[in-house]
Amino acid sequence: MTGTGEEREGTGRDGPWWWERRRGALLDAGLGAVSAAECALEGVETAREAGLPVTAGVLFGALTGSTLVLRRRWPIAVVLVGIAVTPATMGFLLGVVGLYTLAAGEVPRRILATLASMSLAGTFVVTYLQTRGDVEADGTLVIVLSVFMAVALTVPPVLLGLYVGARRRLMESLQERADSLERELSLLADRAEERAEWARREERTRIAREMHDVVAHRVSLMVVHAAALQAVAAKDPVKAVRNAALVGDMGRQALTELREMLGVLRAVEKPVRPVAPAAGFEDGPSLDALEVLVGQSRAAGMSVEVVVQGEGGAYPAEVEQTAYRVVQEALTNCHKHAPGARVVVRLAHREGEVAMQVENGPCEGEARGADLPSGGNGLVGMRERVLGLGGVFVSGPTDGGGFRVSAVLPFR
Asked: Is the pTM of this model over 0.70?
């Protein structure tokens, strides 16, 4: 049992042996010295009454009082020693401090009650026996005086110890709660930082997809038209002029979309938070612009057929843009990898979902592309967009030597 009731400060251990603090060791050593001196003086009278040498009484008293040094380590033993020497009328400080230490510690309450009762009874009996012979009064006064002395030497130290022990345990509990709260706050801060980093990564990925879709499609068409312009410049000036005008229009459209995206990036910064999938889609393209998109590919010489099933409705903005971007990227891949091939764009409006499919046949004859570069991110970006909305994405070659891209987007 090491609880003492003294308020502990700091967090390190700097005391010898069983003492947590050096200050506690010095305090117990001082109390032990005072108790030893008290018991030694009281041992003189006890030795004379018992007919023993005074030296024996002094040594016995000093040894008995010095046991108070062990109060933190063995408080029960100290209290028992105090009760044992009560008949010798010594150990006042030993008994009081021992009971206080025992009450302030972590001993079971039944042990505390038993030892406190023994101390109370012993003090009462000794006081009664001594007072009965010294005071010329009736028995009632002697009993009252004995009860008063027993209660005064037993109850106050026990109550004070219980109070100090309860206060110490409360402070320890509050400290544990504060430490636990600090750990929880640290975990929450780490998780918030992780969510912020995840949000930044998602935003960078979204912006990269948008930039890829805008630049890849527009520039691919511009390259195709530039190649056609180079081929017909000398033979058909009228067609060359028309192709040049198309290249200029597509360049201006690409610049407009890029300027809009850069404007969003230059907007006033706000705290980074995880955003819903719909964020950033409000002003994007929609399925209404699908005919214009297909018309641009046709103007570049691609044979594109559009098949629509069902009647369209009011789709969420993120569904509209994702469907548009899937078709746009699929057409861009057709320009890159299947020049001259026939392309079929299918759009199906169903209950609760919209499906799209872009399929191209094999390249015809010696048709070849305009050496358009490919970073390999087109299919990855389409898959990320579709899966981000809880849809299904499938792509792969067909049995006829072409390639097919299919996506299904659910909506509420």
From this structure: no
